[in-house]
Design brief:
Blueprint: H1 4-23, H2 31-46, H3 50-54, H4 58-66, H5 73-91, H6 94-111, H7 116-127
Helix pairs in contact: 1-2, 1-5, 5-6, 6-7
């Protein structure tokens, strides 16, 4: 039987993959469908939408992640990095890009993975 935590982790990974495809400009479906899925995934994962999440400070968001199991932190940080990076690029919002940089750095730190695409995004954000 699948637990709520496993289900949420599966949703996080699904959202992360969808965002990666959008970031790489390789969407499989129409953007309209992605946005619909995006909203429902956000509410399933966080119990609120992106607008509420984006209004929170980096510290408040980190606190939300810290309330989850430690083994899941890397998945949350990767997803949050992608989430803020994608929205920051689309909306040309430097505050979102700054949050993306923070969450990507936390992802690299907690995962111990050398992820060149993530490092490249951090460097791109830092240049602006």
């Amino acid at each position: 039987m699948i637990t709520d935590k496993e289900f949420t982790l599966r949703l996080i990974r699904q959202l992360t993959q969808a965002l990666e495809k959008l970031i790489l400009d390789k969407p499989e479906e129409s953007l309209m469908q992605k946005e619909l899925d995006f909203d429902s995934l956000m509410k399933d994962i966080f119990k609120f939408d992106f607008q509420v999440l984006s209004s929170k400070s980096k510290e408040e968001i980190i606190e939300i992640v810290n309330e989850r199991q430690e083994r899941d932190h890397k998945d949350y940080y990767e997803m949050l990095g992608n989430l803020f990076y994608y929205n920051g690029k689309v909306e040309k919002n430097n505050e979102f890009l700054d949050k993306a940089k923070t969450f990507y750095e936390l992802y690299l730190k907690t995962s111990g993975i050398f992820a060149l695409p993530i490092i490249n995004r951090i460097n791109e954000i830092a240049k602006n």
